[in-house]
Automatic annotation (TrEMBL):
Entry keyword Signal: yes
Positions of region (Disordered): 22-43
CDD domains documented for this protein: PBP2_TMBP
Family per similarity comment: Belongs to the bacterial solute-binding protein 1 family.
Entry superkingdom: Bacteria
Segments forming a coiled coil: none
Official protein name in the record: ABC transporter substrate-binding protein
Cleavable signal peptide: 1-22
SUPFAM superfamilies linked: Periplasmic binding protein-like II
Length: 432
């Protein structure tokens, strides 16, 4: 999901709009020292990526109706996570109070907390025991809570069940070899003509880091070890990157390097893919019976395949945090508790099919009937692996994207790519 407007330009526009409208009061452009106290009540801005469902605004309207003196206003950033992160960083570096509650990708916690751009949150004032344990850890840094899990995420395999049934295939593939064999069988059918085999994102964005982590983790490897040291030159990492390179060459559509998350969704919904690695949010959109999807009622989901059995998903999702420079932090914290509560998460799941963080929702009979993938997703989240948890995350993910992109597109060998990446990550993680 991309936008051509530069991050700096959008930031300036957003700040200007906040100042003109009053924002949280005062001059938003003035620098101020961060405050760790959760005090102050009044208007709050909620900074997030694009809401394509319309559900977020409904939830904001619900809050605003009940809190006329503590109104929340949404500031939407571009679709691309890299652009969102950059704009939030620019705002924090100017110590502006224009941004209040931040909707953070789970991998940004360490970077934002280490730079003191976030306000620590009291664990005893929010019930984290109801949430999936894996999601809670993404909001912590050095044993302190800096963000509350709002949505989780894990990659799943979307597949055309109708085409597998037509080819006499009774179950989704558990291994790469099974997936390629299934593709051959479907392509031999008249209905399989014009349908590409497989897609996971290999364009040079954050999504490529995610694809790399999943491919490497499925091989039993890791880009960094438990102590944070790079382990890129291992056979497992090489095998993971080689899988992406081979899949890109032999099994993906020609447009693969230009397709982002939304592009992949449209490709699948257009009936052009047999197998796709994708997030849960796609389920509700692809299953719409309004004519926008050609595969409604024709697909299902399964765990990601791996080299010798089920693969490993990347742990994604978003957490809500409070800018260290925000005003009205007491209101901001109450709003976070409202938006991450069970009722709000249930409504969000029903409207968007995004993964909740409240564990009980995955076992609710009414919800599992509506979203049959919930048991698969819960299992995927439990076994998912995160992207590198590092302070210099922006530099680390850029290095991963550059090396893997070159290997996937044949600009360099896999061996050379991992050697170069090992050197870059060693430098970037040395001072953690």
């Amino acid at each position: 999901m991309r936008r051509t407007i530069t991050a700096g330009a959008v930031t300036c526009l957003a700040l200007a709009a906040l100042t003109a409208c009053g924002g949280s009061g005062g001059d938003s452009g003035k620098e101020k020292a961060p405050s760790g106290a959760l005090d102050g009540r009044g208007p709050v801005t909620f900074v997030t990526g694009k809401d394509r469902s319309g559900n977020l605004q409904k939830q904001i309207d619900g809050w605003n109706s009940a809190h006329p003196k503590e109104q929340v206003r949404v500031v939407e950033l571009p679709d691309e996570p890299n652009d969102q992160r950059q704009q939030m960083i620019q705002n924090a570096q100017t110590k502006s109070d224009a941004y209040g509650v931040l909707n953070l990708d789970v991998v940004w916690t360490a970077e934002f907390a280490a730079n003191r751009w976030l306000t620590p949150l009291p664990k005893d004032q929010i019930d984290l025991s109801k949430m999936l344990p894996a999601t809670v850890t993404t909001g912590e840094y050095r044993d302190k809570l800096y963000a509350v899990p709002s949505t989780s995420d894990a990659g799943m395999l979307y597949y055309r069940k109708d085409l597998l049934d037509k080819a006499g295939i009774s179950a989704p593939p558990k291994t790469y070899a099974e997936m390629w064999a299934d593709c051959d069988k479907v392509k031999a059918l008249p209905e399989g003509k014009g349908v590409d085999c497989y897609f996971t994102e290999v364009n040079k964005t954050e999504s490529l880091t995610i694809s790399a982590v999943e491919a490497v983790s499925s091989q039993g490897g890791s880009l960094l070890d438990a102590s944070g040291k790079p382990t890129v030159t291992t056979p497992q990492v090489k095998a993971g990157i080689q899988f992406l390179a081979d899949a890109r060459k032999a099994h993906m559509p020609k447009e693969a390097v230009t397709l982002d998350t939304e592009g992949g969704r449209r490709y699948f919904q257009g009936g052009k893919l047999l197998f796709q690695r994708q997030w849960p949010y796609q389920y509700a959109l692809a299953d719409k019976a309004d004519g926008s999807s050609k595969v409604a009622g024709k697909f299902a989901v399964a765990p990601l395949p791996g080299p010798n059995g089920p693969g490993v998903a990347n742990l994604g999702g978003h957490n809500l945090a409070i800018s260290a420079f925000a005003k009205n932090k007491a209101t901001a914290f109450d709003f976070i508790k409202y938006l991450t509560g069970e009722q709000a998460q249930r409504a969000n799941l029903l409207a968007t099919s995004q993964a909740p963080t409240v564990a009980s929702l995955y076992d609710d009979p009414a919800l599992t009937k509506r979203f049959p993938y919930l048991p698969v997703l819960k299992q995927a989240i439990a076994g998912a692996k995160p992207r590198p948890v590092v302070v210099k995350y922006g530099d680390v993910t850029a290095a991963i994207q550059g090396a893997v992109y070159d290997a996937v597109n044949g600009r360099t060998t896999v061996d050379q790519a991992v050697t170069d990446l090992q050197g870059k990550l060693t430098t970037l993680t040395a001072a953690q």
